[in-house]
């Protein structure tokens, strides 16, 4: 159901992106997503999730018809709905970009099932989420014994890849962005910018944000029908008598 106000998880996520570290990470995410979507063609593309309406990952997309889905009325979006219930027909979209849609929901599997449902065969999805194996993820340790107190739930790329595999997706590319420590204030961020340079250079997967590019695969294999056991017409020692049109016992002596 569409909401009328931001949840605590969505608000916390947007607040982080408003910081200096978040803004730097967002620029890097834009660059990575643009590279992943540059060669994706089709008719319809959808952007959904936390950042939909606040930033556009589809600016450089070659898909002409683009929809932005948000959950709060009054924001610059074209559709009001939740990622758990996408208002699109089966097999209709060529590209879905979901920003932190898995982080800010209690139903991450439902979000992925909806993306799979609306994508055309061979359609693409790009997932953006917080990485638990990062400085950002370490901040969640204070809720390790009380997950209900967490505003967001972070899932590793390994787990998300497993979920995608179960739904029949093929993961084409995985990237990471934002390697600096996350603390209040910008001083530590400015002093540790070399983390970003190091992580980007060596393509480390310990960034605060992950980006997963996957493609929906549909099997085109023809199922084999169960083989039917056919009883043998001829038994050992039997021969066909063409003149009589019936099966007769073979004589032991051909000369008789």
From TrEMBL:
UniProt xrefs under InterPro entries: Methyltransf_11, SAM-dependent_MTases_sf
Pfam families reported in the protein's UniProt record: Methyltransf_11
Keyword Ion transport recorded: no
Keywords from the UniProt entry: Methyltransferase, Transferase
Superkingdom: Bacteria
Signal peptide: none
Gene3D superfamilies associated with the record: Vaccinia Virus protein VP39 (3.40.50.150)
Methyltransferase type domain: residues covered: 78-127
Keyword Coiled coil (UniProt): no
MF terms (GO), sorted A to Z: S-adenosylmethionine-dependent methyltransferase activity
Biological process per Gene Ontology, one example term: methylation
UniProt protein name: Methyltransferase domain-containing protein
Organism taxonomic ancestry: Bacteria, Pseudomonadati, Pseudomonadota, Gammaproteobacteria, Thiotrichales
């Amino acid at each position: 159901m569409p909401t009328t106000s931001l949840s605590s998880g969505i608000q916390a996520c947007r607040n982080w992106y408003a910081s200096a570290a978040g803004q730097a990470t967002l620029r890097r995410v834009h660059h990575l997503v643009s590279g992943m979507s540059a060669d994706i063609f089709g008719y319809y593309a959808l952007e959904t999730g936390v950042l939909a309406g606040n930033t556009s990952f589809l600016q450089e997309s070659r898909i002409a018809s683009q929809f932005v889905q948000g959950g709060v009325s009054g924001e610059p979006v074209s559709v009001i709905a939740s990622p758990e219930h996408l208002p699109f027909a089966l097999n209709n979209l060529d590209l879905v970009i979901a920003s932190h849609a898995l982080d800010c929901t209690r139903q991450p599997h439902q979000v992925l099932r909806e993306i799979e449902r609306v994508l055309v065969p061979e359609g693409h999805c790009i997932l953006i989420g917080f990485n638990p194996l990062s400085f950002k993820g370490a901040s969640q340790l204070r809720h390790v014994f009380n997950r209900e107190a967490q505003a967001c739930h972070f899932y590793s790329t390994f787990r998300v890849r497993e979920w995608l595999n179960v739904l029949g997706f093929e993961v084409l590319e995985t990237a990471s962005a934002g390697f600096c420590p996350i603390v209040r204030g910008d001083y530590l961020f400015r002093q540790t910018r070399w983390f970003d340079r190091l992580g980007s250079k060596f393509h480390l997967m310990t960034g605060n944000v992950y980006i997963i590019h996957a493609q929906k695969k549909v099997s085109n294999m023809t199922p084999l029908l169960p083989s039917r056991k056919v009883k043998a017409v001829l038994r050992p020692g039997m021969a066909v008598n063409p003149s009589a049109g019936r099966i007769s016992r073979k004589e032991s002596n051909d000369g008789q």
